[in-house]
Amino acid sequence: MVADYFDAGQATSVLRLVILVGGPYLLKYWLSNPTGGFKSRSKEEKTLEFLSSFLAFDFTKRNPIVVEQAFRFAFKQKLKYVEIAQLMSFLSPMHAFHLYRSAKQFVGFETSKGPLIYRGRYENERFRTRMSKVLIASYFGFAYSGFLILMYGLEVAFARHNPLLGGLVSFASIMLFSLAYVCVDHALSLQSLKKFIQEYQLAKQTSDIPK
User: Fold this and answer.
1) Does the predicted TM-score (pTM) go above 0.85?
2) Buried-most residue among 12, 33, 132, 139 (CB within 10 A)?
3) pLDDT in tens, 64-85
4) Are residues 194 and 128 in contact, defined by beta-carbon separation less than 8 angstroms?
């Protein structure tokens, strides 16, 4: 049994480490969904009904402002008309809208039928791969450092009855955990970018998007 190999302190440490590693992923998922990752069926039905009625007519003939406001209501994100027109040409527009939420910090569109525009060096696939590896390694480095400082630093602070040391340890841990989250958030966004590019390539093969 686990109790035969781990005492209560060790079990608590393992649990904290599991939470530390998995926490940012859960937080990323939670923040990427306006309702915390859970939608009521009635809200989904209302959104579907709205989109069905709105898309019953050619949206390209509607006023761009109306289109932007309609999709902002449906997807809870600000999108330009040219972005909406491009995403609607994807094989799976709903999936494209979801991926674009994270990928738009790296790419974008300047016209409704123009090519995908990359920001900075993110057009280079090797650069994107290298950045992902660096970010993941940095995440574990920051997270583990924060975990060790919090666990052992607070133990020393309590043993010495030093509230100032405890405050400094807590602040340092929070900063390290924040850096860890920034790293994992950026790494997961790069994963979304990779999937978005794949969807974009598929869309180019079946539409009039410039190749």
Assistant:
1) no
2) 139
3) 888 888 888 877 788 999 999 8
4) yes
